[in-house]
Each structure stands twice: as C-alpha cells, then as structure tokens.
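Sequence only, no structure available. Ideas?
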Amino acid sequence: MKKNFLYLPFLTAFSALLISSCAGTINTVKYSVPEIKEQKKAYIISAENSQYIQFKPGVILPMVGYIVLPDDSSKEHEIIGNTDLVIKNEVEKYGIKAEIVKKGDKLGDFDFLIEYHDTWRWDCKKVLDKLEIVFISPNGTLISKSEFNIYKNKELHNFPTPEKEVPKMMKELFEK
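Reply:
I predicted one. Tokens follow.
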C-alpha cells in the first residue's frame, strides 16, 4: 500500500505537466492590419512542398531518465495535409473571397496574397510542427505574419493540425 502512495506525487506532477504543456505557441506580428471591410479578394499561394522532420527517438539513461535528442534539419517532402484549403475556409469566414493558386500563376486583381510554409514531424502520426502564414500587399509589402511552433512542447502536445491552429492564427491576423 505504501509503495502505491509513493507514485501519487509523481503522477500528479506528470498530469499537471501534460495538461499545461499540450499546446504550441503562436506569435503574430502586424506591420499594418488590413481593414476587413476593405479586403474583398485574396490569393492563397499553395506551397510547392512541405518540410518534414524525421523521427528521432530519445534515449533512456539509468538514474537520469529520458533525454530528448536535438532534431535533424527538416527535409523537403511532398505536400502533407490540406493546409491551403483550411486557410481558404478560414479567410472566407471573414467575408473575403479566397482562391488557391500555384506559385507563378497569373493573378487577377486582389487585395492581398497569403503565403504559408508548413513543417511536420511524426509522433504516432504526422503532426504539425511549425506553420507560418504571411499576408502580403499587392505591391509586395509585408502586411502581417503569424507563426505556430510546437518546438517547446514537442514531446507533450495535443497533436496539432492546420484545422486546430489556422483558426487561432487567422483570428490574430485579423484582430486590430
């Protein structure tokens, strides 16, 4: 009975850590915030590829515990997920007509461009490691950018996906 009692503080601390460390961070920088009512059309430049970080297991050392090894650099990978479609759906919730195009496509009139870059990793399934969304004016000026990053919590996370993170990022990008 006493042996089970010794595990209680460990379990409590582990549970608290798991609950408080399950989300990545979003950092948004606004250089100029577009007036939503003035913005009518946007093009989303679909990524040509995704980045992927190969799985690298940690090491368990006696008397030390689990050691997380540093990641190798990400590598180009075929597109993972449907990030462009998720961005399109979220932008349209703000009343902006959005169209997904490929880099180099001829564009008509637009109020701003949206570019994104996604990086993924494997943890029982592919999870979003990093996502950067950038708003660019027709003259090429950076309007704002938002970046999701799982890095600080890469071992304890809520299996982030574009469907979970893009709505939060769009809210920050469109807020004043």
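The first strand starts at residue 25 and ends at 30.
Hope that gets you unstuck.
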